[in-house]
UniProtKB/TrEMBL annotation:
PROSITE patterns: PEPTIDASE_M14 (PS52035). This is Murein tripeptide amidase MpaA. The keyword Signal applies. The keyword tRNA processing does not apply. One of its GO terms (biological process) is proteolysis. Belongs to the peptidase M14 family.
Length: 889
């Protein structure tokens, strides 16, 4: 159920207080002749009156004065109209009390209304004022000008979105000041935990009783939690444990501004205050006054603050980072430096509670989520306390703002706000045993800021009162991993669309989790050793223990990487390494759920269900770089087309003026032929699989070409990562690559083209430029990893197996090929064609074409219905694009 403010008396009191506040907003300030005095702050989202007083010459008349705000007369300032998308509504600035001059003193009361005629600057439809309002932030001169007497009185007035709003520079200055002015008996520190795409520091605030408390937590408590949770459980139950744990606060979407400001405010209050007093209500709606003793809080907790995970976005006022990627879809994939840095911090601190501040859901949303839930969570140890905490935070937020309600997706939505993905920061934190809550404030204004900070107070109060219970649940989460327990209690939250318990998908196995995963590292056993090596770093960054096989065991060789699933983070290891699940029975899902690094990054992994296979044979990882073949005395070599690194190397060689020939010699010998001098240059910078050749084979020589891609698209960044010369002006390109639905149809058939994904395919289909092409889509949000059959005789599929996988995040396929087009990849027509994802109606794609090539107006055109660059995670599929670019030259 939801919490509401109750009673007519309570609302009447609130109204009286509001009226008193309005009266108090009349701010007297004296403006001096030709001098600017420090003046008031005016909010774009709340009306405010400013009392203007200034000494004028004795002969000044009111009728002689012209009034300005900035460089415009007051009458020229209008409010925004959502109907016209411009400032065409009523006046923004008016006189509440008309100007008068008494004994040489000019007096006026000036009223500032809401600049955008709303209390909420988050609105994006029908016109996006979230992008518009920053243009008006600043300090303006409020002036009365006597042009006859050449005299003016002026007052500086700051115009801000809401009272507690801070720009990026103000935020940086504020947190530095908080650190310097914090209470002397507390450890208050700022660290840089990462660097953004544009090189900005990612700041982390830490508050603790003292530095020793942080060191003890990281060096003693954390190892015990992860390695010996059973002992710590026993110590807590015996009242022998003196330990601290962590509450972590974050913002990731910086254009959802109250979240940034709330994290800074919480940092300020916990750094400076002895006590934090606030009001809330209990479950029956009765008002309760709360007091947090901050010193007592710090006896038990370390507080960690990421003011924003996306500083570049804060500067630009964008949701995305500087690579135009939504970081809150990348916490699992970790293609960006910002998400890599945050993952490392969550893995380091293993928080008890993780709060991720967002906006804007009008109903004031606080997680936990709807089903389907990721089966890799220990759901029974998370959801009951998350639900309780969500209510407590919601009631505190409501009591201290204008909002009268909040909602919790788990109980207020049937579906559509799920946690089946690690894409979101809060759901990612849940994989580390945290109570991970996304908090979506309703609006961009002061009330949403207040609601947000009070959820932070309430979370701390809840943690103080329930520390041992919460910690025991977290330790049990880790214990199940360490002791390889697949608890059937976790099954209860894993339900089908009819809300019937279906449990973890164990198949015929006793346990959902295998005993081990093995990543082969030998060049002959691993199809992509570079991706395999990169996965080791990924797992370690995410707190997963990784070992190296020290001697052969069964089919596995010395040097192979082994993930022993008897560990605290076994759930996350399984989440990224297993094939995934089919959730297509659900009517709604929020974002992509296919993680599957082996398929999406393109390396081999083996699941092992033999508990004793590697006993006594595992040691620390010693491999320091990806394996690479060795150069011999041969004059020519074939570089296998098996990785993104190969494409980088080929483009590097071309750039340096070397000859590169594309060759398919059969029997797995597919790739690029180069001479020894070229290869010697490449191996210094690239880890490659190659073999000696007797001679330079016949084949197409690859030359340097300029490739077009839409600006800031994933296709652009994928091509750039492969080392192509990428431009955003189609007229300057030799080859066109697009993943955009805004493709200019007049470009079709003018140059060689590669079209990728549902949006581009739909645009081409609707253009009518390719006669006979029929494209079908169930929904652009549908997603699936599909088993496919590739055209092995085509150079477009060079380096891919005949039996492989294809991925779509746009529910699209080619229903009918145009005359003269040849299929390159087709979904298998077998019962197991659908591997994982959310694609209602996916039976329609069974046996259908996913990619094809043909001629349009004499220009080669390649169509990929799959999403080859989705969120830059699908790097295994990038070579479909490079193959096409090379072939289209």
């Amino acid at each position: 159920m939801k919490s509401k403010k109750v009673g007519k008396l309570g609302k009447a009191v609130a109204l009286i207080v509001a009226l008193l506040m309005v009266v108090s907003l009349a701010v007297p300030a004296f403006a001096q002749d030709t001098k600017t005095a420090s003046g008031p702050v005016v909010s774009m989202t709340e009306p405010k009156e400013v009392v203007f007083e200034a000494r004028m010459s004795a002969d000044t008349k009111v009728s002689d004065l012209k009034w300005y705000f900035g460089d415009k007369e007051l009458s020229a300032w209008k409010k925004w109209s959502m109907e016209t998308g411009d400032f065409t509504a009523g006046p923004f600035i008016t006189f509440t009390k008309e100007p008068v001059i008494e004994n040489g003193l000019l007096k006026a009361t000036i009223s500032f209304d809401r600049l955008f005629d709303t209390t909420d600057l988050s609105q994006r439809r029908p016109y996006n004022i979230r992008l518009k309002y920053p243009e008006f932030i600043g300090t303006y001169e409020l002036k009365a000008v006597n042009e006859t007497g050449q005299q003016q009185a002026k007052l500086d007035v700051s115009l801000v979105p809401y009272e507690s709003y801070m720009s990026y520079d103000q935020m940086k200055a504020a947190v530095a000041d908080i650190k310097n002015s914090a209470k002397a008996d507390r450890f208050v520190n700022l660290e840089v935990y990462g660097t953004t795409v544009q090189g900005r520091p990612m700041d982390l605030g830490i508050i603790a009783k003292d530095k020793e408390a942080v060191d003890e937590y990281l060096n003693e408590t954390t190892p015990m939690m992860l390695e010996n949770p059973e002992k710590m459980i026993a110590d807590i139950k015996a009242n022998k444990a003196d330990y601290k744990t962590v509450i972590f606060m974050n913002n990731i979407h910086p254009d959802e501004q109250p979240g940034v400001d709330a994290v800074v405010k919480l940092f300020n209050d916990y750094a400076k205050e002895d006590f934090i007093d606030y009001a809330t209500t209990d479950e029956n709606g009765k008002k309760v006054n709360k007091r947090i003793n901050v010193d007592k809080l710090l006896e038990d907790f370390i507080l960690v603050f990421s003011f924003t995970q996306n500083p570049d976005g804060r500067v630009a006022n964008t949701r995305t980072n500087a690579n135009n990627l939504d970081l809150n879809r990348d916490n699992g994939f970790q293609t960006q430096p910002e998400t890599q840095a945050m993952a490392a911090q969550i893995s380091k601190y293993n928080p008890l509670i993780f709060l991720d501040y967002h906006g804007f859901v009008q109903e004031f949303l606080i997680e936990p989520c709807t089903p389907p839930h990721d089966p890799n969570y220990e759901t029974d140890l998370l959801y009951s306390t998350m639900l309780e905490l969500a209510h407590i935070m919601g009631r505190a937020g409501v009591e201290n703002s204008k909002y009268e309600d909040y909602l919790i997706p788990m109980i207020d939505y049937g579906t559509g706000w799920d946690d089946a993905t690690s894409a979101y920061t809060a759901t990612y934190a849940m994989h580390h045993g945290a109570l991970g809550h996304t908090i979506e404030v309703p609006e961009m204004n002061e009330d949403s800021f207040k609601a947000a900070i009070h959820t932070g107070y309430a979370a701390a109060d809840y943690a103080i009162n329930n520390k041992d219970m919460l910690m025991l649940n977290k330790l049990e989460y880790y214990k199940r991993g360490v002791e390889k327990l697949d608890s059937r209690e976790a099954d209860k939250a894993i339900v089908n669309a009819q809300n019937e318990i279906k449990g973890r998908p164990r198949g015929n196995n006793e346990s959902f989790f295998p005993d081990y995963y093995v990543i082969p590292m030998g060049l002959d056993a691993q199809k992509n050793a570079v991706a395999a090596f990169d996965m080791v770093a990924y797992l370690e960054r995410n707190g997963v223990k990784v070992h190296e096989l020290k001697s052969d065991a069964g089919a596995y060789k010395k040097g192979d990487i082994v993930i022993d699933m008897a560990q605290a983070k076994r759930g996350y290891a399984n989440h990224v390494l297993y094939s995934g699940v089919d959730e297509s029975e659900w009517a709604e899902m929020y974002a992509e759920i296919v993680t599957n690094f082996p398929a999406q990054r393109g390396f081999d992994v083996m699941e092992v269900r033999d508990a004793n296979l590697f006993t006594g044979k595992l040691g620390d990882v010693t491999i320091s770089k990806a394996p690479s073949s060795s150069i011999t005395d041969a004059k020519f070599y074939l570089i296998h087309n098996n990785s993104l690194e190969t494409v980088k190397a080929v483009n590097h060689a071309i750039e340096m003026g070397h000859k590169v020939v594309r060759a398919d010699l059969g029997q797995g010998k597919e790739g690029f032929a180069v001479d020894k001098a070229c290869l010697e240059m490449l191996v210094d910078k690239h880890a490659l699989k190659f073999e000696a050749l007797d001679k330079m084979p016949e084949g197409k020589e690859i030359t340097s070409k300029t490739v077009y891609a839409p600006a800031m698209s994933t296709a652009y960044f994928a091509l750039e990562a492969m080392g192509f010369d990428v431009v955003t002006d189609a007229s300057k390109a030799d080859v066109l690559v697009t993943d955009s639905g805004s493709l200019d149809p007049e470009l079709i058939g003018t140059k060689p083209m590669v079209a990728i994904g549902g949006s581009a395919m739909a645009a081409i289909g609707e253009s009518g430029k390719i006669a006979g092409l029929e494209v079908k889509t169930t929904d652009f949000y549908h997603e699936g990893l599909l088993k496919s059959t590739n055209n092995a005789s085509s150079m477009y599929s060079l380096g891919y197996a005949s039996d492989d996988t294809m991925y779509s995040s746009s529910g699209t396929w080619i229903e009918k090929l145009p005359a003269g087009f040849t299929a390159l990849s087709t979904v298998k027509n077998t019962g197991d064609y659908f591997v994982a994802g959310w694609w209602p109606g996916h039976e329609q794609v069974k046996g259908k074409v996913m990619s094809a090539v043909g001629m349009v107006n004499g220009q080669k055109t390649v169509l990929y219905a799959g999403n080859l660059t989705n969120r830059l995670h699908t790097q295994y599929l990038y070579r479909w694009i490079s193959n096409a670019v090379y072939e289209l030259q």
